[in-house]
Write a structure and sequence with these properties.
- By secondary structure, the protein is mostly helical.
- The chain is 81% helix and 3% strand.
- The chain is built from five helices and two strands.
- Strand 1 and strand 2 form a beta hairpin.
- The longest helix is centred in the middle third of the chain and has 32 residues.
- The two termini are 34 Å apart.
Length: 149
């Protein structure tokens, strides 16, 4: 039991990052689902809803990463004016990385025509890209945005 406790304490940052990452995803999906029920599923509306869901998820991720994962407790303006644009820029960059990866998977690699063990190729590509995005976001956050001085 002491060994497990030691491992959990040593990996607190990574474990909390993954927990809050899952919660961020839940926020995104719940926001998306609620707004599609309220506003409908017309293509343009869905695009706007997806943006709102992404903004809600990124806002949640910023606060939880700041306070609980990387323990950057200061709310001073000088700190926020550095952290917020950097966090938003990193999230936009990783979003574009995922979009580019999905485009390559769908159009160049034709992953939509592939099934592996009953799972569609595009879903496999999306899962792989989500893992890559989580890793990229972690490194952006740890080494650029919330780095310890």
């Amino acid at each position: 039991m002491d060994k497990l406790k030691k491992i959990l304490l040593e990996r607190r940052e990574e474990i909390s990052y993954l927990i809050f990452g899952v919660l961020t995803t839940v926020i995104n999906y719940i926001t998306f689902l609620i707004l599609t029920v309220i506003l409908g599923e017309e293509p343009f509306t869905v695009m706007i809803i997806n943006i709102i869901a992404w903004v809600a998820a990124v806002a949640f991720a910023y606060v939880t990463n700041k306070l609980f994962v990387f323990e950057s407790k200061s709310w001073e303006f000088d700190i926020l004016k550095r952290e917020v644009p950097a966090f938003l820029g990193a999230r936009i960059a990783s979003f574009l990385l995922e979009e580019a990866g999905l485009y390559i998977a769908a159009y160049w690699m034709r992953m939509g025509t592939i099934t592996i063990f009953g799972v569609g190729g595009l879903l496999i590509a999306k899962i792989f890209l989500n893992i890559l995005v989580v890793i990229v976001n972690y490194f952006f956050s740890k080494f650029l945005i919330f780095k310890k001085k």
